[in-house]
Write a structure and sequence with these properties.
alpha+beta; Jelly Rolls; seven-stranded antiparallel β-sheet; four-stranded antiparallel β-sheet; 4 helices; 18% helix; 38% strand; binds 2-oxoglutaric acid; binds manganese (II) ion; broad specificity oxidative DNA demethylase activity
């Protein structure tokens, strides 16, 4: 997949955010339109959500949200010390995948689902730079349900540098430089009482 073809597709974005070091994010509003509402409820009810336990500094913690991993059969992916094997895609995700391919020109073969039950569910600072994603990972992050703040900071610094409020039926595309030079997080927001579902589509390149 050529970077130029991706960049040409991304010119259709509703907005582009330029950060330091060539890191860029593109926002697409109203990705699916009316069908997004039904998709939100179907995915909440039908995806195989779980609440895995991870080890942080030697101590076991249940992650503060629900997650699921979906990918092409035969793929392998490791994050937070957990090993995930792809088992194929449920039919319900086919129209969204097709739409994201058309909008971005990318062809992701795996997706990490996150279900934030309310504003107490969070994700800590991290980068999406697992070795399976290769040296230049593109991440397509699609959102349904409640609006939530998505925070960024330069890698190696403590202070948050940017905040983007992501809404229902919105896609955020992150260039590889975002993973190289920035970390991102989904901070706690006590005032948010409704659930939000996020799907981060990725390209596993090992064994492709
Ligand atoms: O929920 C979000 O917007 C972020 C999710 C995320 O960063 C991830 O799945 O790696
Ligand atoms: Mn991430």
């Amino acid at each position: 997949m050529s970077v130029n073809s991706t960049l040409a597709h991304l010119e259709q974005a509703s907005a582009v955010i330029e950060l330091d070091h060539g890191a860029r994010l593109w926002r697409f509003h109203r990705v699916l339109g009316a069908p997004a509402e039904a998709l939100f409820h179907t995915l909440c009810n039908e995806l195989p959500w779980e609440r895995p336990t991870v080890r942080v500094f030697g101590r076991a913690h249940a992650v503060p949200r629900l997650t699921c991993w979906i990918a092409d059969a035969g793929t392998h992916y490791r994050y937070s010390g957990l090993h995930h094997r792809g088992q194929g895609w449920p039919e319900v995700l086919a129209p969204l995948r097709q739409r994201l391919r058309r909008l971005t020109g990318r062809d992701p073969n795996g997706v990490l689902g996150n279900l934030y039950r309310d504003g107490d569910d969070t994700m800590g600072w991290h980068r999406d730079n697992e070795p399976e994603l290769g040296p230049a990972p593109w991440v397509l992050s699609y959102n349904l349900g409640a609006e939530r703040d998505f925070a960024l900071r330069r890698y190696g610094e403590h202070r948050q540098s940017d905040l983007i409020t992501l809404g229902h039926d919105e896609l955020l595309v992150m260039s590889p430089e975002v993973q190289r030079h920035y970390e991102h997080a989904l901070p706690r927001r006590r005032r948010v009482t409704a659930p939000r579902l996020n799907l981060t589509f990725r390209e596993i390149v090992t064994g492709r």
